[in-house]
Amino acid sequence: MKNIKTIGILGGGQLARMMVLETKRLGFDFLVLDPTPACPAAQVGAKQIIGSFKDPEKIALLAEKVDVITFDIEHVNTQKLNELEQQGVVIRPSPKILDIIQDKLKQKMLLKEAGIPIPRFLNQEDLTQAAKLLGYPFVQKLRHGGYDGQGVLVIKSEEDLKDAFKENFYVEEAIAIEKEIAVLVARSPQGEIKVYPVVEMLFDVRANICDEVLCPARIDESLAAKAQEIAFQVIEALGEGAVGIFAVEMFLSKEGDILVNEIAPRPHNSGHFTLDGCITSQFEQHIRAIAGLPLGATDLLIPTMMINLLGEGQGTPVIEGFEEALSLEGVHIHLYGKKEVRPFRKMGHVNIVDRNIDQVVKKAMKVKEILHVKGE
Ligand code: ADP
After folding, report:
1. Cα 147 to ligand 1 centre (Å)
2. For ligand 1, is residue 142 a contact (CB within 6 Å)?
3. pTM of the model as a whole
4. What's the pLDDT tens digit per position in 33-54?
């Protein structure tokens, strides 16, 4: 196998930035394709091709210059990537996996076929019929392009039907959710698999964005073990092309069932805690996996809570409460270097660690109060 030295990334946002920060020390070089000059990854030492990560010519140019291609974002041009993969370009995870994951309905069908527990879903475009079969409330999801809840609607009654998506969707039963949890799992080209401890995700109700992640999740050990087993089954179900790190998002229902919601084929917000909480971060793990190296240990070293720093207002970023937040023990601030604030834009995150889990949560709430990224 060819030695992997230079890594190409489609997208140069915060995930690419953290891959670079975590693994330049292992001797890797990076080239990212991103439309914004001085994108977050380029600021920390990646070289950059300026252009859209959907542009086939720019993707081909990237492929010529690197030993492996990976992703910071999954909404990319898979047609060109499939073509390149057939010509022998190493792309991890495989664009065939992205094709499935980009289409939430295909994703659900694959999981169903593999016997993975998921909410009941229907490929049903007639919403009156869907309501009859699933009952109210039910959930309508766009098949393509949704993120941070943008493509998800809860249809509570007939009233809501007029505001529903008109096409390119599927429907599923509404789960009475006790907790939203996630498990990171990594796979190498040699088939080595490593599973991380379970996290619980807490959401900002205003924007429906996950804005707090706690590890360990406050759930029974037997449920945690079950969630890890399910994540293992998911990566096996994806098959050989599933190389790299994957985040498996799940619901723990009020009845105590664990159901898979969706898969992210890359480092994920729910895994940022690993930077300060685990033996091997999700970013180092991803790079180890795509470079065909042995995977690192995934143990949690200390209870960790991650909070997202979501933009407030619009304009040039100004950070409030920086020194005060840093004066608390066990506070690690990670900023993404974005030049412009927009409401709810992910500007950075903070990992708060403490040997006592109640203290972690308390301290995290304090940091949330103190620290703000505002636009000026
Ligand atoms: P996105 O990919 O945009 O994040 P998700 O499919 O993760 O979309 O859905 C966003 C949120 O909507 C979930 O985190 C959950 O809170 C809620 N949700 C999604 N599907 C269901 C469901 N079947 N039942 C209840 N709530 C759901």
Report:
1. 10
2. no
3. 0.96
4. 999 999 999 999 999 999 998 8
